[in-house]
Amino acid sequence: MKKIGRSIIAAVTITACSFLLPVESFAGNGCGGASWYALRSKTASGERMNPAILTAAHRSLAFGTKVKVTNRNNGRTVVVRINDRGPFIRGRVIDLSRAAAQNIGMVSSGTAKVCYQVIS
């Protein structure tokens, strides 16, 4: 009976992992709203937020991940490094530093529709 129970647990674990892996890889690309912020507080990664460097906040991508962000309104792109968590507003997928937002032309509007793609 113990062998059967362990086999069932192993099968359930393998099945659960097969469902989770595609979701994790899906987090690498997406589209949605973006906003920008220029605080000088510490980020979730522990480094001080610097609005003059090309960084961003994402809910689940690993710190240090490089992401190409494209403004869907004008086609301009920027590569940022994930160093913080967020955004925490429905419909938004990424928060950019002021410098990154300036590169893709969204500082004056405050928000933009973007697509992002993990590059490393």
Automatic annotation (TrEMBL):
Q: Which UniProt keywords apply?
A: Cell membrane, Cell wall biogenesis/degradation, Lipoprotein, Lyase, Membrane, Palmitate, Signal
GO cellular-component term (any): plasma membrane
- Look up the record and give one Gene Ontology term from the biological process aspect: cell wall organization
- Identify the stretch annotated as signal peptide in this record: 1-27
Q: Recorded GO terms, molecular function?
A: lytic endotransglycosylase activity
Q: What is the membrane topology here?
A: Lipid-anchor
Instruction: Give its E.C. classification number.
Output: 4.2.2.-
Q: Which CDD domains does the UniProt record give?
A: DPBB_RlpA-like
Q: NCBIfam families per the record?
A: rlpA (TIGR00413)
Which protein is depicted? Endolytic peptidoglycan transglycosylase RlpA
* Gene name in the database record: rlpA
